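Example S7 (structure tokens).
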């Protein structure tokens, strides 16, 4: 009786506390949110989108930020799909857009190549067995925050919904999505191995 029902309805409890914000489209999430999360990460920056292409266009000076983060001890991991894989080809046919999935992956890899070898920076291609699970769910982790995009049927990533999560404890939504990304990473192929 101390709190009126209107206040109780606005207070998040349990796993609900981890949901910071939801967006009906990834493109509806302000670019300042992405930039602030990237800039604020000090320990872990894990980009587990299938192409990760949009970081280079949406976050100002993203390459230099990655360099600075990596050199200051932040672990930076980039997980992308195999640009020559079957799932990538299937997704390209589904999306049927001029800027193809494999092109977007190659653009990301080109930007990473320009950075050269940096301490704490690692890139991998998702394994063939995991590609279908990777292409359907993007998890972007920034220390205790994550932006998660479940991809809908025939829509490209920016047209799919996005959840902003902040870790509040063990076993919540943040952990479940983070574990999904870690599982994909554990079987992923280091880029150097795939490139030759």
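Recovered sequence:
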């Amino acid at each position: 009786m101390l709190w009126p029902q209107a206040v109780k309805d606005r207070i998040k409890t349990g796993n609900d506390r981890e949901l910071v914000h939801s967006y009906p489209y990834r493109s509806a999430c302000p670019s300042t949110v992405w930039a602030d999360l990237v800039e604020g990460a000090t320990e872990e920056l894990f980009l587990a989108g299938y192409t990760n292409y949009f970081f280079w266009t949406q976050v100002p000076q993203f390459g230099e930020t990655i360099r600075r983060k990596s050199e200051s001890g932040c672990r930076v991991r980039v997980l992308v799909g195999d640009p020559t894989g079957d799932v990538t080809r299937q997704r390209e046919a589904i999306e049927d857009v001029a800027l193809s999935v494999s092109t977007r992956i190659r653009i990301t890899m080109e930007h990473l190549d320009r950075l050269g070898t940096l301490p704490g920076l690692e890139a991998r291609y998702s394994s063939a067995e995991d590609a279908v699970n990777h292409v359907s769910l993007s998890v972007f982790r920034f220390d205790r925050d994550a932006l998660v995009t479940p991809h809908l049927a025939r829509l490209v990533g920016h047209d799919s919904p996005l959840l902003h999560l902040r870790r509040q404890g063990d076993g919540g939504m943040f952990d479940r999505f983070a574990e999904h990304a870690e599982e994909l990473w554990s079987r992923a192929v280091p880029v150097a191995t795939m490139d030759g």
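Notes on this example. The chain has a mean pLDDT of 89.
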